[in-house]
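Bump. Still looking for atpase expression protein 3 C-alpha cells.
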Amino acid sequence: MWEKKGAIARKLKDTDLLAHSKFSAFYSTKAPSRSFRKRNNKRAKANSKPILDEARFQQAISQLPSRFINEELCKIVTLEDDPLVCLELFNWASQQHRFRHDASTYHVTIKKLGIAKMYQEMDDVVNQLLAVPQIGNEALYNSIIYYFTEARKLTRAVNIFKRMKSSRNLDCRPSIKTYNILLTAMLGRGRNSYINHMYMETMRCLFKQMVDDGIEPDIFSLNSMMKGYVLSLHINDALRVFHQMGVVYKCLPNSFSYDYLVHGLCAQGRTNNAIELFDEMKEKGFVLSNKSFNSLVNALALGGEVKEAVNYLWEMIDKHRSVDIITYKTVLDEICRQGRVGEATSLLKEWQEKDLVDGITYRELLHVLEDDFGNSNDRERFRY
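Sorry for the wait, here they are.
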C-alpha cells in the first residue's frame, strides 16, 4: 500500500514539473531590462517605509528642556539630519502639554521633509497647517508651493497660491518670489511645443494677475515669460516682452534674455534678427550659451550662409564654447552640398589637428562625408 502511494506521489511530482516547464516556456529567460529594473527599484523604494532611528530620536528629545519653546524646537530640528527623526519630533511636540506649533516649526519641518523628498509625509504636515488658518506667512507658503512643484503636484501648489491670494493676513499674500516659483514650475512641465503652448496660456494669465496686483516683474519673471514664448513658438510675443523690459518694467535684459531670443529666432530661421541681437549682446559684454551658439551656426548653415556659419563657429571656439557633433556635421554637409567637398575635408582635418574633435568624432564625421558624398579615393589618408 505504501509503495502504491509512493508511486502515485512520484507521478504527481513528475506531472507538476512537466506542467511547470511548459508554463515557463511562455516567459523569456533573458535578464530584466534596465528600464524594468529602474521601474521596479522605484516602486520598491516608494513602497518601503523608512525606519525610525529610536536612539537618535531619544537623543534629540533629551536636548530639549522640559518646557521648551518654539525657537528651541526649531534649533533641534534644524540641526537634525534625519528627516524621519524631524517628523517624529514634530509629532511628539504636538502632543506635549502647553506647546503649540507656530509658523517657524511648521516651516523647518516642511523644508526637511521636502528636501528629503518625503512628499506624502510633507503633505500630511501641510494639511495640519491648513487646519489652523491663523498660522502662516509668505515664506512658509512659498516653501510649500516650491516643494509641491518639485513633487509634480502643480494643482496642489496652485491651491496654496489661491489660499495666499484670499488670505486676510497681508503677511501671507503672494510676492514676486511666489509668482517666480510657479512660472518656473510651468516652464518645467513642457516636453514639446504643444504642451508648452498649453501652459503658456496659464503663464500669461499668471503674469497678468501679478502685474494687476501691483507687483513689479523682475528679470527672472520676464525671462521666464520670454523663455515660455520661445518654447511655445510665439517668438514675436517674446520679442514684445524684450522690448518692453526697459521701457515698461524698468528692468534691463541680461545674457539669458538675449540667449532665449537668439535660440528662438534661429529655430524659426530668422538668422538676420538673431545676428542683430547677437551683435547687440556682444556690445554689452554678454556671451551666448553653448546651446544658442550651436543654434546660430546651424541656422546659418542650413540657410545656405555657410561662410558666415564657419566664421561664427570659429568665434564660438574662441569664446570657449562647446561645439556639438550636430553642428560640425551640419556645417560640413552644407559645404559639400555646394560642391566644395575638398574644402569640407580640409576643414575637418584642421579641426582634428587643433584637437577640436576627438578621434571618435573625427572618424564619425569622416564616414558621413564618405558615405554621403564619396569625397575621397584614398580614405586611409584621413585616418589615424
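Confidence is low (pLDDT under 50) at residues 1-5, 15-27, 375-384.

Edit: fixed formatting.
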